[in-house]
Design brief:
The complex is a heterodimer of chains A (461) and B (237). Chain A is 50% helix and 10% strand. With 461 residues, chain A is an alpha/beta fold. A 6-stranded parallel beta sheet of chain A has the order 1-10-7-4-2-3, with helices on both faces. Chain A has a 4-stranded mixed beta sheet with strand order 8-5-6-9. Chain B is of the alpha/beta class. Chain B has 2 domains: 108 residues; 121 residues, Rossmann fold (3-Layer(aba) Sandwich), CATH 3.40.50. Chain B is built from 12 helices and 6 strands. The chains are: A alpha/beta (461), B alpha/beta (237). The structure holds iron/sulfur cluster.
Amino acid sequence: MRTQPIDRAAAALPAETRASVYDGSKSGYDKRTKVLFDHYADPDRLRELAGEVKQHVVENLDTYLPALEARLLANGAKVHWASTAEAACEAVHGIMKARGARKLVKAKTMVSEEIGLEDYLTKRGIESLETDLGEFIVQLDHDHPSHIIKPIMHKNRRQIAETFEKNGLGAYDDRPEEITRRARGFLRHKYLEADVGLTGANFVVAESGRVVVVTNEGNSRFCLAATRCHIVLVGIEKILPRDRDLGLFLNLLARSGTGQHLTVYNEFISGPRGAGQPDGPEEMHVILVDNGRTEVLATECRDILRCIRCGACLNVCPVYRQSGGHAYRSVYPGPVGAVLSPLLLGKRFPEKADLPKASSLCGACNEVCPVNIPIPDLLLRLRDRAHREGVPSPGTPPMGAWAILATQPVAWRSALLAGRAINYLPTALVPVPALRAWESKRTLPPWRGGEFRRWLKARRK
Amino acid sequence: MATCLCDAFHDDVAAATVEVLERLGCEVLFPEGQTCCGQPAFNGGDWSASRKVVRHAVSTFASPEPVVVPSGSCAAMLFHGARLAFEGQPDLGAVTALGNRTWELGDFIVNGLGIRSWPGRFDARLALHRSCHTRGTGSSDAVALLLGSIEGVRMVEFGEGEQCCGFGGTFSVSFPHVSGSMGALKLDHVRQASPDVLVSGDMGCLMHLGGIATKEGKPLRTMHVAQVLRDAVLAKP
Ligand code: SF4
């Protein structure tokens, strides 16, 4: 029987990789639980509140976006609207060209992965360097992140040390401190050489135009300190209404994502360097990226746009733990990715319509999500959509005959009795692929169709 | 509602449910026309097939009594899933009304009837697998409370209790590798607590976990919550 792509990818995943993914995600989940419940008697109320704030933003983007643009302009930033990935890449390139800049340092941004920025710039002779340690390693490997906040969750320290060795960053040494020291030594020079610093944004505040970037390595701070021009790449859904909302969101983001009370470095950037300010980039550009988001907004799945990319749903997801992030063939893996990635494709949805199937619908993702996104409901909606659009779904048993049986009590009762045949037939002879798939991993209990009804009748006589 | 799994495989669970409810003084009606809650097609993505089956359930369970289901997952289909599938349908109201009076068995006993302890005796170490579809409802706590109150029962905790067992209905056959691995991992955790019996309120989970354990050559005794409750008060025939 044919099975689903993610199931095949999980089966092919090397044990070593699975172990890295499992350890990384489990420790992320455990820390999150501890830090949330240590400090809040009922963190679920916070998640619900944050969910309502973001849902409000998502449903009122048409007013928040112009308000944000006006604030950003008033703060002295330049604003660019990019409706597609291509347009966003062009905007970055355009800014670089205008400055005659050839080198760019980048703090972690998933949007730059989403739009394929590195490829785009490399083809045009521009060096773009990742400064987040995990992203840096991914870049050295010509690999892709497998997790939205821990990009190298799929690698262990031996593999990382080998990457460093292969790339001329010293002899093999797998001590984490040594790996970090070497990366730091290499990157420090690169900051100084770069003309432009590019960051994402965890939040942008509509009322103040403040751009908020959080990192644990301080690399965003270096990007800002060493370059003359700051480019912010941000999805249009990353808005918060007011500065005071940051208290709630920074708290939840750090706790949900990395199990910290607060991320180590929190930058609040409200424009380019002003008169009298001693440092900071003299030019600031904010590129607001749509790339499919307004189409998502038009669907019943718009709740997914609340996402603050904390990664908690990946960490807790049993399927992610078995398959790793690359199995999702997308920039955004795990439960959030299973909803967002196919949706961002717009009309090309069928290409990734299998992702929403990769869930037992256990609901653990919803339970940890800091903005309380009902991910299982959204996965289900997308399954229905895939079915309506006629996308084939390998391994999913057809339901037509079952529905006929289950709406006709007489036929149902006969089937209950007839089902006994499977007790006597070898599975190989039963023409039901689902049964074979079941028995590939488990035994089947004896069929006892009709027994309960008989028992009840006898008891009631 | 007996559920299709009990109708086809686990008649003793349905019988135990009847005996437990009757012991509590309930009169149990069993509409003969009942089949399934509609969940397989709902989860499989075929919502139009699912709606047909839910409509059948709505008409079968038309009388106003509470509907008690020995499965968190089937109950959740009626009080949550069906509402999604019927958004924008003319009979959403009837579907919602059925959902509003549908209970998972443990939830019904504790939060519906207000029973907080269970009589009788059951000498065993029990590991409770909390079923996923009742996350956010009172079911798991209710079941843990009832089981823990039985004389002779020792509840044992096991690691990663929040993790799913990997059953997931059609997921178990369309993702056999991931589903099987999740089950094996769950069993590892359960075995470390060395329970005498693994208990759950969902036969899907138990059929899957028990089946993996048997296939591994290390069978594990599994029981539905209803069977433990019944056996605590009635010696097994
Ligand atoms: S969907 Fe929720 S849990 Fe998952 S990354 Fe987004 S905010 Fe975090």
